[in-house]
Amino acid sequence: MNTLAIYSSKGGVGKTATAVNLAYTAAISGQRTLLCDMDSQGAASYYFRIKPKKKFNSEKLLEGEIARNIRGTDFPGLDLLPAHFSFRNLDLVLNRLAEKKRRQVLTGVFAPLKDDYDVLVLDCPPNLTLLSENIIEAADNLVCPVIPTTLSLIALEQLLKLFGKLDADKGKILAFFSMVERRKSMHLAMMEKYSKYPLFLKTSIPFLAEIEKMGILRQPVGATARLSPAARQYDKLWQEVWERSRR
Amino acid sequence: MMIEKVPSSTFVAPTGIEIASLAERLGDGYAVGELEPEEVREEYLDTFEWRLLISGRALARSGRRYRLFSADGTLLGEGRGPRKKRPFWWNFQEGPLRDDLIEDADIRALCPKLQLVRHRRFFQLLNEDEKTVLRLRLERTIIPAGASGPADICHLHLTGIRGYDQEFQTVLQLMREDGLEEIPNGTHFLVPILARAGIDVDSHGSKTAILLPRDISIRGGLRQAGLAVLSDIRRNLPGTVDDIDTEFLHDLRISLRRTRSLLSIFAKKIPGEQGRHFRAEFRWITQTTGNVRDSDVYLLQEDDYRKMLPTVLHPGLTGFVRGMREYRNREFRSMRKSLKSQRFTRLLGQWQHFLENLPEEAAEEAGLCRVFAARAVKKRFRKLIARGEDLGPDSPPAALHALRIEVKKLRYLLEFFHSLFPPEEVELLIKHMKKLQNNLGEFNDLSVQQVMLGTFRSPGRNGEPQQALAVAAALGGLMTRLFERQQQVRGEFEAIFADFACAENRELVQTIVRAGGVGPPGEAAGRR
Hints:
The complex is a heterodimer. By secondary structure, chain A is α/β, with parallel strands linked by helices. Chain A is built from 12 helices and 7 strands. Chain A has a single domain, classed as P-loop containing nucleotide triphosphate hydrolases (Rossmann fold, 3-Layer(aba) Sandwich), CATH 3.40.50. Chain A has a 7-stranded mixed beta sheet with strand order 3-4-2-5-1-6-7, sandwiched between helices. By secondary structure, chain B is an alpha+beta fold. Chain B has helices spanning 22-26, 51-54, 96-105, 165-177, 190-197, 218-241, 246-265, 272-288, 290-300, 302-308, 314-339, 342-356, 369-390, 397-417, 423-455, 465-500, 503-516; strands at 8-12, 31-34, 38-46, 57-62, 65-70, 75-80, 111-126, 132-143, 151-160, 181-183. Chain B is globular and about 85 Å long. The model of chain B is unreliable at 520-528 (pLDDT under 50). The A-B interface holds A 48-51, 53, 67, 69-72, 74, 79, 112-113, 115-116, 218 and B 1-4, 6, 124, 129-132, 161-164.
């Protein structure tokens, strides 16, 4: 099982759109895929029209009671662990655990799923907390959307700093430019400057109305129009992520 | 696995069943959506003895588009495939579809078994958020009149969605209340279709199981075993004559040898002249099939041979294979002539007539088949052990060949009469025999191959000395490798035989013999 965390400490960079569309692309390319909505806002769950079961909450998640809470999406091969409102307290619950254990909790939660799924996609909330450290530990790769703007790049630098502090392998980070608007000279300049770093993928995702419309249509872009520009771009991104993650 | 399998269920449905009304019956904001329907004309292919079906698969084609399904109808893979009427796995392009077929099809041809037209309608049960919570597939299968059919069948498949079990259970209950016939879970989706088309899958095995009543008479045993083996001959004959794949001939030869074995076991029950006639005629037909089978074995081993040789000798091997194919074609034509001859047809008719009209013995002279069979097992086992123990490291290959024949005779005996003996013991003894048979079989094959390669002449290549030289070099290389392997196999024989001749197997034979009713208790089978 390949665990990919879609991560950025900054909000509004396109994490959920990335998680939803990459998970969908993985599933239709034949990988048994589970998307875990870790963000208490539940946007990924909303896109798939899935509500959590009433008895599910953050404590159940951390105790590993996830199998019975996984639900099938409308797409064969793609399941979802929906978010719960209580996930906003995940850090509080983690903080209560013994110091030795609390960074590996998520790793232990997901490990038993290794025979059921080929790909695990985590849609992560925007923060730099104990939960982030758990995610860094559990994921084989962190896929980080970066808008070509200063603030978004600062968020990436902060992540690199956290990796340094944790002595984690920075090679796990796969960044890509997200919500790119080619008419903006600043976007182009930023991309020009940073895309030479090997942690950046070659594929970028443009700012497109059809990605925005996912909120109305409530399905991945590829399910609405298989060959739309956005769908094709996510296909490309998936292929590059898949290839890099298997190196 | 932590995640439970998604539930599914299949019902036999009336063709006019209304799916949309389900939403009203469920209430609570449910709706039914329908997706694009599909109509496909498909031809299902399988090996002669339905290996794909038995291993829970189904291979369909429409034109050159092939689709492989699992037993519950899930699509496992698809792609373009060969145009050939009866393709082999190696006729498919490299890829997942071909990889999936290798194990089940092995060296058997994939033969057209059934043609049908499938009309499929796909429905989704949606909840108040318009989320799919259950999938429904209404599938009407029409089998046109032909070798099978005509038939018109309608099935409703329900497939749950993980986490929405309540909806699945509710609809399942509704269908049951409507009185729809439920097909047991785990049934291969083709099974009800084949049943309606009148195709009996069970009658297509390569070997008929012989089940004898415990107190059957000797002649009764001969009749039933003989007719079962005769049906194997008849079943494999058309495929052999049409040269569909090499296994037909292989299985035909096994049933011919089994018939000859019966003729030998029951020699005393078949009157003199008649017995001599059947023995001579079955020997004749078995011999006419020998050369084709031998060349099949060489041709099937082409890849293994290639791996044994350095690349420089490969062109020579190619020349050998070409020559072997020509030889096989010639031999095949001659064999087909014999198999289609009046002489052979008459032989099968006479044999059948003989078996069906075997007079029942008078009560006082009628022996029990199990006593007769048990005595035969005891005798054969004793003879086999004696022959084996006489062998030393310097014994000639012919002595090992003779032992191989003894083992085979015992194996056939156990197979004919297994239903009269304790099943576990028979199964265990056969399992132990297989090791010995494999060793002796491989030794013999290697001897035959070396003799054949040493005397093989590329037909029609006299004018090409270079080519003849290349073939000779390749064959020389092969013979060396085969000789080395044979030495190795021979070296393993003593230990394998000692294993077989162990006290445990002697006890097994004793138990088998005792169950047949041959006393006195405690008499050691195999004691000389």
